[in-house]
Structures are given as structure tokens and as C-alpha cells.
Amino acid sequence: MNAEPLALWVEILISLFLLLGAAFVLIGAIGLFRLPDFFMRLHGPTKATTLGVGSLVVASLIYFSATREGLSLHELLISLFLFISAPVSAYMLAKAAVLQQLPLTPRTRGKPWEQ
Questions:
Q1: Whole-number Å distance between alpha carbons of 90 and 46
Q2: pLDDT per residue as tens digits for the range 3-55
Q3: Could you tell me the pTM of the whole model?
Q4: Domain enclosing residue 24, as ranges
Q5: Given 7, 26, 50, 94, which residue has the most CB atoms within 10 angstroms?
Q6: Which residues form the signal peptide (predicted)?
């Protein structure tokens, strides 16, 4: 298959979104690993990783839209599902942790179950 090369600005844009997404995913993974308790760890995957995967999906959308005719809708559906399901699942995890009264580290401010 002889595919036409992409324009330089499209390749740069795709590369920027891939690097941005990889950086956010890395930050989220480090946060998940390094933070001391569940409530602090919840922020890594829900905030940074959602932005990271969103950036990777945008890069995929740009690439497949540039190499084919028309807009690639698969990535739009993935993004929609991601941005709807991530906050809902984080809320459910936090609610379950509050109900279980998971132990906190002294650096965590406030007691969520005493409110």
C-alpha cells in the first residue's frame, strides 16, 4: 500500500497530543503508586489519567481522520464513554471508601465520614 505522507503540521500536532497524553498517564500512574492513602490515590487515575487517555484518543482521532476521508467517529465515542464513566466510577469508589471508613494517613485533612 502506498499511503500518502501526512503534512508536517499534522504529524507535529499528533506527536504533541501523544506526548501530552503520555505525560498525564505517567503522572497519574506515579500518583497512584506514591500517594499514601486511598482518598489521595483516587485523584491520580481519575484526573490525570482521564486527561492522558483523552489526549491519546484525540491524537488517534486526528491521525485516522487525516489518513482517511472524513471524521473518525470511533474515537469520539470512546472519549464520550471515558468522560462519562470516569467521574461516576470515582464517585462510587469514594462513596464505598467512606462507608467502609478506610484508614487515613495523618496528612489527609478532614474525616470524610464525620460530615
A1: 6
A2: 678 889 999 999 999 999 999 999 988 988 888 888 888 877 788 878 898 89
A3: 0.79
A4: 11-100
A5: 50
A6: none
* Closest by Cα among 114, 16, 4 to 62: 16
Show the CA angle centred on residue 110, arms to residues 85 and 39, nearest 5°: 30
Number of domains composing the chain: 1
Q: Residue 5 corresponds to which cell in the numbers above?
A: 505522507
pLDDT in tens, 90-115: 899 989 988 888 888 877 776 666 65
Q: Does the CA dihedral 91-93-99-105 come out positive or negative?
A: negative
Cell numbers for 76: 469520539
Residue 115 falls inside a structural domain: no
- Burial label, 102 (beta-carbon count in 10 A; 0-12, 13-18, 19+): middle
